[in-house]
Amino acid sequence: MRLRALAFAAMVICLAELPGQPSGRERLGTAPLPPIAVSIESSLRVAFPESAGDSLWLWPAASCDIAVGGDFHAAVEVPFAARLDLAANAKKRAAAALGDLGLSAGGSLRAGKWLLSAELSYAHPTGIWYGGQAEAAGIRSGGGYRTFGASLGAIRISDPVMLGVSLGAEAALPRRERFGGAEGPLSAKVRLFATEALNGSVALSAGLSGGLELARGRDGQAATLAASFAGSVSLILSGTKGSFRIGASRLLSDPGAPTVLEFGCSRRIAGKE
User: Fold this and answer.
1) How much of the chain exceeds pLDDT 90, in percent?
2) Which of 50, 68, 182, 214 pairs with 199 at a CA distance of 20 to 30 A?
């Protein structure tokens, strides 16, 4: 049962975005999952500045997750963004705002030594994205598009090691702007990962991801295609009622990108055995 729970945890982490917006829905830990469980989960990402004149960025998030037997889950996520300007002559020292609200639902099934999974997601533009508003608030916290996503994952279980792969795609709907409209971007990503359970309470995980994003042009402008690569490592600690994760990720395709520290914890508040 513990191995099955860890496999489901790895599956949800595998489907999570990395490292742009790691999901607060990540199911952390190796404790057995009851048939019905309600969990409150939180996460925090911190990007340290490269120099004293840069900004310190924080991305906290909170979510509520309902899991049914480890085979189905649904979640709502409320993300935030915060920025602390470290420059001596900063006009606005700190700013914070709500991000884009996220909804997701997914399921999994066991086929021999494989755990197969699928997830659908939706992000609503509740964050600050418009240029004038972002300038006045001192922060941009959202993408400004209604975005639909789908992902598939597969995990090969070979106790105590699990190897996994996930494929995902997102499509953003067009949005209206003050002068005309803007087509939403299209993106696709793939992630490979490995997780090893050191014992019943501790696990190590590492992953590599790659993605493509097609930014569709407006007003006759040509579309642009951008590629990105990222890596992450994490340590997962779990107990009977909750779990904690600490890790780090980095955008490998951008030499100037900062290393991002990631923290996550979950607490099961209700369950039906």
Assistant:
1) 51
2) 68
Task: Say whether pLDDT at 10 is over 60.
Answer: no
pTM over 0.85: no
Residues spanned by the domain of 128: 2-272
* Overall domain count for the chain: 1
CATH number at residue 23: 2.40.160.40
Tokens of 63: 């979510």
Judged by phi (left if over 0) then psi (alpha if -120 to 50, else beta), residue 13 lies in: alpha
- Written as one letter, the residue type at 198 is L
Q: 7 or 171: which carries more pLDDT confidence?
A: 171
Quote the tokens at residue 233.
């490592």
CB distance 47 to 57 below 8 Å: yes
DSSP 79-130: EEEEEEE--TT-SS-EEEEE--EEEEEEEEEEETTEEEEEEEEEEE--S--S
Return the closest-CA partner of residue 243 out of 2, 35, 42.
Answer: 42
Give Cβ neighbours of residue 256 (< 8 Å, ≥ 6 apart).
50
| pLDDT tens digits along 90-116 | 777 899 999 999 999 999 898 888 999
Cα(8)–Cα(30) distance, integer angstroms: 9
- Which residues make Cβ contacts (< 8 Å) with residue 178, sequence separation at least 6? none
The count of C-alpha atoms lying within 13 angstroms of the C-alpha of 269, restricted to the half-sphere facing its C-beta, is 10
Asked if the model's pLDDT at residue 34 lies above 80, the reply is no
- Residue 184 in contact with residue 174, Cβ under 8 Å? yes
- Residues in Cβ contact with 101 at an 8 Å cutoff, skipping those fewer than 6 apart: 76, 77, 78, 79, 123, 124, 126
Does 17 score more than 90 pLDDT?
A: no
Intra-chain end-to-end CA distance of the chain, in Å: 14
